[in-house]
Amino acid sequence: MDTFQMIQKILSANLNVPADSVRTDSKASDFAAWDSLHHLVLILEIEREFGLKFAMDEIAELNSVETIMKAVAQKAAK
Questions:
Q1: CA 25, 56, 58, 75 torsion: positive or negative?
Q2: Model's pTM, two decimal places?
Q3: Measuring CA to CA, which residue among 21, 29, 24 is closest to residue 2?
Q4: Which end of the chain offers a freer environment for a tag, N or C, measured as fewer CB atoms within 10 Å?
């Protein structure tokens, strides 16, 4: 499973939406359930799944699949 598929699975499960509705160009505003509480849960799940930690200032910026994928790639490369 690649990075996108893992993120897609996490968002789908936590936002209770079909996996195919989560695309690489999806953003928080595309999903009614992606509110501030779900945002924190999503980031915690992503951190756990990938073995990463995001700083508080980074977390606020992770508001789209694209930014999440980029941040995961950057953290994983370190």
A1: negative
A2: 0.92
A3: 24
A4: C
